Amino acid sequence: MLSKKSQYAFKALEYLTERYKQGPVLISEISKKKKIPLKFLENILLELKKEEILDSKKGKGGGYFLAKDPAKVKVATIIRIVNGPIAMLPCVSLYFYERCKNCDEKKCGLHDLMIEVRDASLGILENRTLKDLAH
Amino acid sequence: MLSKKSQYAFKALEYLTERYKQGPVLISEISKKKKIPLKFLENILLELKKEEILDSKKGKGGGYFLAKDPAKVKVATIIRIVNGPIAMLPCVSLYFYERCKNCDEKKCGLHDLMIEVRDASLGILENRTLKDLAH
DNA sequence: TTTTAAGTCTATTAACTTGGTAGGGAATTT
DNA sequence: AAATTCCCTACCAAGTTAATAGACTTAAAA
Lengths: 135, 135
What we know:
The structure is a homodimer. Chain A folds into two domains: about 5-65, Arc Repressor Mutant, subunit A, CATH 1.10.10.10; about 75-135, no CATH class. Chain A has six helices and two strands; from the N terminus they run H-H-H-E-E-H-H-H. Chain A has helices at about 5-20, 25-35, 40-50, 75-80, 110-125, 130-135, and strands at about 55, 65. In chain A, strands 1-2 form a two-stranded antiparallel sheet. The model of chain A has no long low-confidence stretch (mean pLDDT about 95). The interface of A and B includes residues 2, 7, 102, 123 and 132 of A. The first copy, chain A, binds a DNA duplex through helix 3.
């Protein structure tokens, strides 16, 4: 399941997508409009900035804004940043791969199945962007 | 991600699938062969019994065994029992549905997307059984 | 140049979840 | 009756999540 943090992130990004190219938006404004705890939201936006999804401006007239075209930001990318792996097992994760202990990937029945599930999910998540979320 | 408990469950079920119709198998045997902490495994098997995936026999010659044909036990069912929801959001879960607070499902962009992802995953998980995991 | 308005950063905390343990109790077979 | 095996309840430590606090930095405006 997506964490609450992830849901907050998507709500904030939705808000910023609606205001793309309209200048910086205050954290406090997003917090109020989307009912996200202010300080928690700060952390989330900062993280998204470090990953270059968002950019920001300090001081008066400052705020956060999308660093790129919302049609270029994949949903999968956001999930990986704020929620972690999309795969159901570490041993089939593309970006967070970890070998299974006590389990030979060659003859693990779950392994192949979970690759299928991963690919089915990614087929969708890698092909949808922030723009699609807004519609 | 699937919890360690879920991975243990699948390993145990794999073992029991190989021994389907061959009489009860000791918890301690599964524990040893599959390297699963004994007491933890007890809890898992008991839970699977309560959900009628497994059955058991007490006393000498006792143990656990599959309650039905492994070809009839869906992977999705097991995941729901030991891991919980398959969907990425409570508001799109079929078996663990919960309404989103502060989010109108009608106009939530994530909602529709997550339904797609759910259906893609279920398309696989509802059509694979314990038997498929073994081969 | 001072003030004010922002975002930045580090640390802390409370609640919850996960993984694992302990120790009898109950049923069944011999 | 004794041995064997699952059943059940409770507990605990560690980690994660959600949220908060407060001081710091940068930038614009007065």
